[in-house]
Amino acid sequence: MAKLIAILNVVAWSGFWAFGYLALTGGSEAGGQVVVAMILAALGAAAGIWAYMWLVRHSERTGYARRPNKAVPEQLREPEKYADAGEPT
């Protein structure tokens, strides 16, 4: 399943860049085509972000990647263990 999501990720980002380029370089005479290209680029970006986040969560669950550091330091979670460390007297 992870390989399928990885392929989806590559295809989605490719679509984002391709249709984004078409949307940005489309002339003013091709108004409808520019709107369609913008919508397809947005869908590609959304699918790419979703697939990337799924792959990150999957790699953390399976142990392939380390989990990120916690936002709260240990000293703030257990202040009684570190009562004399870092406190001004």
What attributes characterize this protein structure?
89 residues, mainly alpha, 3 helices, transmembrane helix, membrane, transmembrane
Please, could you describe this protein's structure?
The chain is mostly helical. The chain has one domain (2-68). The chain is built from three helices and no strands. The chain has helices at 2-25, 31-62, 74-77. Helix 1 (2-25) packs antiparallel against helix 2. The mean pLDDT is 84. Keywords: Membrane, Transmembrane, Transmembrane helix. The chain crosses the membrane at residues 7-24, 30-56. Residues 75-89 have a biased composition (Basic and acidic residues). Residues 66-89 are annotated as: Disordered.
Give the beta-strand count: 0
Q: Roughly what fraction of the amino acids lie in strands?
A: under 5%
| Unreliable sequence segments | none
Overall 3D shape: elongated
* SS field, number of helical segments: 3
Q: Sheet bearing the most strands, described?
A: none
End-to-end separation in angstroms reads 57 Å
H and E order:
HHH
Radius of gyration: 23 Å
Helix content: 55-70%
Q: How many separate domains?
A: 1
Whole-number mean pLDDT: 84
Which structural class is indicated by helix and strand composition?
Answer: mainly alpha
Region (Disordered): 66-89
Keywords: Membrane, Transmembrane, Transmembrane helix
Transmembrane segments: 7-24, 30-56
Biased composition (Basic and acidic residues): 75-89
